[in-house]
Amino acid sequence: MQNMDQFKINIENWSRAFPTVVGKVYKRFGPIMISNVRVGSLSGQVLNRKTGNLQKSIKTIFKEDKDVHMFLGTDVQSVKGFGYGAYWMQKGRDFLNPAINKSMPKVHNAIASDLEKEFAKVVR
């Protein structure tokens, strides 16, 4: 089994070479990752939440150019004025990392599977 660093390298390479395929996978997994963060990291008393604003604000942002990137995070400011921020999947805040790490092998496998399907269409 590959480690997280190898997943990151593969996804970065695939993102540059096959942005459409990677973008479709990101869009499929975005809602799953949001749900994982909300349920697993921001539920109950994990952050001693009072309003639920942070939990409701978790979102994904997709940036597509020559390659594609997915950001997972929030733009909500804390009561003390610091931002929680949106981060690229591999560099999330502590409360984002468990959901990101849980999803990365599945994202990796989905991209690899979709790439195989694309190659099968070309070879025919």
What does the average pLDDT come to? 77
Main sheet: which strands, in order across? 1-2-3
**Secondary structure tally: strands:** 3
Helical stretch tally = 4
Helix-strand makeup class: alpha+beta
The gyration radius over C-alpha positions equals: 16 Å
Tell me the helix content. 55-70%
Separation of the first and last Cα atoms:
31 Å
Q: What is the global morphology?
A: elongated
* N-to-C series of helices and strands: HHHEEEH
Feature tags:
single chain, 124 residues, alpha+beta, 3-stranded antiparallel β-sheet, 4 helices, 3 strands
Describe this entry's structure for a reader.
23% of the residues are buried. The chain has a 3-stranded antiparallel β-sheet with strand order 1-2-3. It has helices spanning 4-17, 19-41, 53-57, 97-123, and strands at residues 59-64, 68-73, 86-88. The longest helix is centred in the C-terminal third of the chain and has 27 residues, at 97-123. By secondary structure, the protein is of the alpha+beta class. It has one domain. The chain starts with a helix and ends with a helix.
